[in-house]
Write a structure and sequence with these properties.
Keywords: Fatty acid metabolism, Lipid metabolism, Lyase, Transit peptide. It is a single chain. The protein is α/β, with parallel strands linked by helices. The protein folds into 2 domains: about 5-210, 2-enoyl-CoA Hydratase, Chain A, domain 1 (Alpha-Beta Complex), CATH 3.90.226; about 215-260, Lyase 2-enoyl-coa Hydratase, Chain  A, domain 2. The chain is about 45% helix and about 15% strand. It contains 11 helices and 9 strands. The strands form 2 sheets. A 7-stranded mixed sheet has the order 1-2-3-4-5-7-9, with helices on both faces. A two-stranded parallel ribbon has the order 6-8. A hairpin with a 2-residue loop joins strand 2 and strand 3. It starts with a strand and ends in a 10-residue tail after the last helix. The relative contact order is 0.10.
Length: about 270
């Protein structure tokens, strides 16, 4: 285990640290890490700062509260109804900022791992689904419960439906019921379920394993993964073939294949 560095950050609702190439962004807005308009802006900025730091190879999104994230700040949204437009402008700004946050995670040049301990509901579940990988403790729970309060989880639906089978997604969206972590793993929302006491250790192991790879290769591959999923099959193969050629022409591909043939550890140039 290397030295853990605390990253200077203006947001008191985030605790950002780094160990080696692993940047950890921990939400710290108790009791539920509710996604207020300001908090979503702080999270987006933290991810953008990670993207701009060449020393960052993997990002872990975690929580320092008992709840991972309970979704939007409903008290803030209700208060906006007092405006002359009954809150329409505020609602538009809120959901656009939420969409920007989720897309920032997907488009980030490095992989993002969700470390989930506790409840992740509505836009909190959307956060988990937007990350590239998700590891959860046995105490984690997932739900898109908007239907219970007359607000269908339409934006969480976008990320959810791109991670799990549509019938499982519709079940979560229509019932609003909590999903146990083992079932969340079975339907593809998360990768693994581990005991709470080992959660951080397992996530760190995943992060360090990924961080040891060529960052150029990971960036290229992550972008290609999300691009091809939205294409028809023949277009996806044509696109992926072009990406493979681009990858083969890179220095890290030459080094990696050479190291494999010569039975040695590759020395990445990240280009």
């Amino acid at each position: 285990m290397g030295e853990v560095l605390t990253i200077e950050n203006d947001a008191t609702t985030l605790r950002v640290t780094q160990e080696g190439g692993v940047r950890r962004i921990a939400m710290a807005r108790p009791p539920a890490n509710a996604l207020s308009l300001e908090f979503m802006g702080q999270l987006t900025k933290a991810f953008e700062e990670a993207a701009g730091d060449e020393g960052v190879r993997v990002v872990v999104l975690a929580s320092d509260a008992k709840v991972f994230c309970a979704g939007h700040d409903l008290k803030e949204m209700q208060a906006a109804r007092q405006e002359a437009d009954q809150g329409r402008a505020f609602f538009e700004k809120t959901f656009l900022r939420c969409s920007d946050l989720m897309q920032t995670i997907v488009k980030l040049r490095v992989p993002v791992i969700a470390e989930v301990n506790g409840v992740a509901t509505a836009a909190g579940c959307q956060l988990v689904a937007s990350c590239d990988l998700a590891i959860a403790s046995e105490e984690a729970r997932f739900a898109t419960p908007g239907v219970n309060i007359g607000l269908f989880c339409s934006t969480p639906m976008v990320a959810l439906s791109r991670n799990v089978h549509r019938k499982h997604a519709m079940e979560m969206l229509l019932t609003g019921e909590m999903t146990e972590p083992t079932h969340a793993r079975e339907i593809g929302l998360i990768n693994r379920v581990v005991p709470k006491e080992y959660l951080g250790q397992v996530v760190q192991k995943y992060a360090e394993t990924i961080a040891s790879k060529s960052s150029f290769t990971l960036k290229l591959g992550k972008e290609a993964f999300y691009q091809q999923t939205e294409m028809p099959l023949s277009d996806a193969y044509d696109y992926a073939a072009r990406v493979m050629v681009q990858n083969m022409m890179a220095k890290d591909s030459e080094e990696g294949i050479g190291a494999f043939v010569e039975k040695r550890t590759p020395q990445w140039k990240d280009e």
